[in-house]
Design goal:
Elements (H helix, E strand, L loop, with lengths): L2 E6 L4 H12 L4 E5 L10 E6 L4 E6 L2 E3 L4 E6 L13 H17 L4 E3 L2 H4 L7 H10 L7 E4 L2 H9 L4 E5 L5 E3 L5 E3 L3 E4 H4 L3 H4 L4 E5 L5 E8 L2 E7 L21 E4 L3 H13 L4 E8 L5 E7 L5 H7 L3 H10 L13
Parallel strand pairs: 1-2, 1-6, 6-7
Antiparallel strand pairs: 3-4, 4-5, 8-13, 9-12, 9-13, 10-11, 14-15, 14-17, 15-16, 17-18
Length: 333
């Protein structure tokens, strides 16, 4: 019987909701939670034979035959740290690369293969924007810089206000040792003046500020496109970044994307070699759709809960019937 393989972690809510559907549909699957690899009881063996030019995998005496794998869902595998343990860096590195060896020798339908989804596209906004532009999606003018003169000139050329964000979402620690997220901010030219020292510490993304009518969170699975309106301008809290969540005041609703735009979105997904993505767009006051980024492992649970869109079920069906659902089999070679 064909199996679906999950390489993930215990707490990923998207995987939890998808496997619940697989249980309902009586589809057999194997779930590898990579945090468990570090337990003394966990055993992994990867075997390569010169005769068969094939790999066989065994995890805790459960054999995983590549020929039996229908599709693979790779979502946010996490590796336990070894603080205070002897040779912790060595142990962590060996497990990390054992997992990498597994993923790069298993030919199947991937959602998504880490070669592209993680290594190439994750936090690589400029590359995404360039490809989005080539398929006909509108994008904001963008620079990455820590040069105060370039930043000020860019801001002046774009109406004296720009959107600033980190290249990678990272938490800082405040005076109370609590994590503090860094969100997108609208910054004026005047606010940049005199901040040479702080701005030169590290590069950041500065973009043309796009006025918003509404924002969209678009979840793509194969050729299925689910769009949700986020009325972020209804709250001062979410005006510049809806990830500051204000569910009481910010309406979420199903959105019908014009065929021309959805075709371009799917074309971009193929160019990025993604079978799944959580995409962020803005609809400006003129009604134009503006691409911001796509997250290869983005979450969608709150969208599904609020709108009732059948995202988890579609995800499960796509893993069971990948070709019928538009998922491509990308070679890792």
């Amino acid at each position: 019987m064909k199996k679906i393989l999950f390489i993930t972690n215990h707490s990923d809510n998207a995987v939890n909701s998808v496997v619940a559907w697989l249980d309902k549909l009586n589809q057999y699957y194997i779930r590898i939670n990579t945090e468990d690899f570090f337990a003394a009881s966990e055993k992994l063996t990867i075997t390569l034979s010169n005769l068969s030019i094939d790999c066989n995998y065994t995890l805790n005496e459960i054999e995983i035959l590549p020929s039996e794998i229908l599709s693979v869902c790779y979502r946010r595998p996490s590796l336990t740290t070894f603080d205070g343990k002897s040779h912790s860096e060595y142990i962590h590195a060996q497990w990390k690369h054992a997992i990498w060896s597994l993923t790069t020798t298993l030919e199947s339908y991937w959602v998504n293969h880490p070669l592209w989804g993680k290594n190439l596209l994750e936090h690589n906004k400029l590359y995404q924007l360039r490809l989005a532009s080539t398929v006909g999606l509108k994008i904001p003018d963008t620079i990455i810089s820590n040069n105060i003169n370039e930043i000020v000139n860019f801001s002046r050329n774009h109406g004296d206000k720009v959107a600033c964000k980190p290249l990678r979402h990272t938490n800082l620690v405040n005076e109370a040792d609590a994590p503090v997220g860094i969100y997108t901010q609208m910054v004026t030219t005047k606010e940049f003046i005199g901040r040479d020292q702080s701005l030169s510490i590290a590069p950041m993304i500065i973009q043309q500020y796009i006025e918003k009518k509404i924002e969209l969170r678009v979840t793509i699975i194969g050729h299925h496109v689910f769009a949700c309106e986020i009325h972020s301008q209804s709250s001062d809290r979410t005006k510049h970044d809806w990830r500051r969540y204000d569910f009481e005041n910010v309406k979420h609703a199903v959105h019908e994307i014009p065929r021309k735009i959805s075709d371009r979105i799917l074309k971009l997904m193929r160019a990025l070699r993604l079978n799944y993505g959580a995409m962020d767009l803005i609809i400006n006051p003129e009604g134009e759709y503006v691409f911001l980024e796509v997250n290869p492992t983005g979450q969608y649970g709150w969208i599904e809960d609020i709108t009732g869109l059948p995202i988890s079920k579609t995800f499960a069906l796509a893993l069971i019937e990948p070709t019928e659902n538009g998922i491509k089999r990308y070679s890792v070679q």
